[in-house]
Amino acid sequence: MDYFSEGLTKAVALLLALDPETFSAVWATASVTALALIASLLMGLPLGFALGHFHFPGRRGVRLFVDWMLSLPTVVIGLIVYAFLTARGPLGEWGLLFSVPGMALGLTLLGLPIIISMTATAVESTDSRLTQTLLSLGADRWQLLWATLTEARFAMALAAATAFGRIVSEVGIAMMVGGNIKWQTRTITTAIALETGKGEFATGIALGIVLMIVALVVNLLVGLLRGRANGSAGGHRAGGGRT
Amino acid sequence: MSAPLYRLRGVEAGYGEAAGLGPLAASVLHVPELSIAHGSIVGLAGHNGSGKSTLLKLLGFLLSPSMGDVYFDGRLVDQAALRAGHLLRRRAVLLGQDTCLLKRSVAANVFYGLKVRGLGADRRAVDWALELVGLDPVLFARRAWYELSGGEAQRVALAARLVLRPKVLLLDEPTASLDEESALRIREASLAAREQWGATLVAVSHDMIWLRSLSDEIVFMRGGRLTEAPSGIHGWSAVSVSA
After folding, report:
1. What gap in Å lies between CA A94 and CA A108, rounded to an integer?
2. Alpha-carbon distance values, A93 to A32, A102, B94, B95 (Å)
3. For chain A, which terminus, N or C, has the lower number of CB atoms within 10 Å?
4. Among all residues of chain A, which has the CA nearest to that of B178?
5. pLDDT tens digits for B196-219?
6. pLDDT computed for residue B129 by the predictor
7. Tens digit of pLDDT for each residue in B94-119?
8. Can you give the residue range of the structural domain that contains A157?
9. Is the ipTM beyond the 0.90 threshold?
């Protein structure tokens, strides 16, 4: 236990002293996560909305594909992205391997199906009663689309928080595509793996504390959003609410 | 004598094939002739599945007839009119069985219909509508949708329609699973719609006492058809039907 408490003490000291190496990993994590999350949201929200709202041929096939993407092991995603970005790969000339944008690309493939799937589910679950309510209040086609989108906002935010949690804590893709390069692509998770392997528990624990705080905040946010999203299941059923 | 507000001739309607949506379903509504006078309050009674809600959706322009003609306010509702259906729905507003509140404050819910009509935020109108359904604006206007009881939510949904001062108010089982006080408030507010701006009302309910206390006339339905009134029910001046 001594070495654990000693590691914890050192970890707190590293954080309080704003240790450059520790905070380099925190910064890399923040950059990669922000890029991947923004890309996932920009593509995933409209695609998820379209998948949940519109009925088109092949919709079930698309849904199956997205759900399959959800279950892909991250190491496989890392392998595929690595194969594309390596010098001999089709995107090799972009020079993205072992870079923050390259890692963000890989992590986007992790976050995108989460955003699409959860957004589509949110829109599907609100659609039937909400559509009739909006139409009966006089909404035209565009007002109907916009209101449906805004009514699913809590569920979409929940999707974003869930994707954030997955992206920020991912290690396989970050390690394979980023290469765990100190001061550049070393993220919190890859640094923890490395430092623990070297027996440097203090740095690992310090980074672990940061990650746990992030996880706690995300979980609190997810809990709050889930409450809001489920609070009325697509709007309060008039006549069927709290009694 | 002025033309009736609604006139239906040889109307058939339903879901699926009858509505041009698919091969499985057939017509669930058959109305050889029905006229509803301006400013009348018509009750619709009948067993589950008798076509009451389908008729309300047709009158609310949420469902198109597969056959026959619908005249509204002296004009034939043709395909061109139905393409701009929101303009019709802004005159004939439905409070449906599956109505839900938007995930917004009470005031925002009541205001939504005015907003889609391009009218500015009118807090006085919102307060007036809430008072009409027996809700104190000071206590309720800022409440979130999930802070309402079933009865309060239903009254907010009605206020969201009354604030529009619609020409026609269509009520589909508005008192289902509500307590006596809420049912009474909804009746009073509905009657006020006719008294204050001459609205025409069509209401569906299984609560015959409530329905008779509201309606000038009661129309009975069975198997998608309008039928003769059971003995003891009199008066067909506002509604003329042909079974």
Report:
1. 17
2. 21, 12, 60, 60
3. N
4. A239
5. 999 999 999 999 999 999 999 899
6. 95
7. 997 767 899 899 999 999 999 999 98
8. 2-231
9. no
- DSSP secondary structure letter of residue A171: -
Residue A227: inside a domain, yes or no?
yes
- CA distance, residue B243 to nearest chain A CA (Å): 28
Task: For residue B80, give its domain range.
Answer: 6-242
Q: Are B125 and B159 in contact (CB under 8 A)?
A: no
A152/chain B closest Cα distance in angstroms? 9
Task: Provide the CATH number for the domain around residue A150.
Answer: 1.10.3720.10
- Residue from A126, A133, A144 whose CB has the most chain B CBs within 10 Å, to mutate: A133
Angle, nearest 10°, between helix axes A188-198 and A201-231?
150
Number of domains observed in the structure of chain B: 1
Q: How far is B234 from chain A (nearest CA, A)?
A: 31
Local structure of residue B22 (DSSP, 8 states): -
Residue A70 lies in a domain: yes
Longest dimension (CA), chain B: 52
Residue B230 lies in a domain: yes
Domain annotation covers residue B210: yes
Here the CATH number for the domain that contains residue B238 is 3.40.50.300
Residue B1 in domain: no
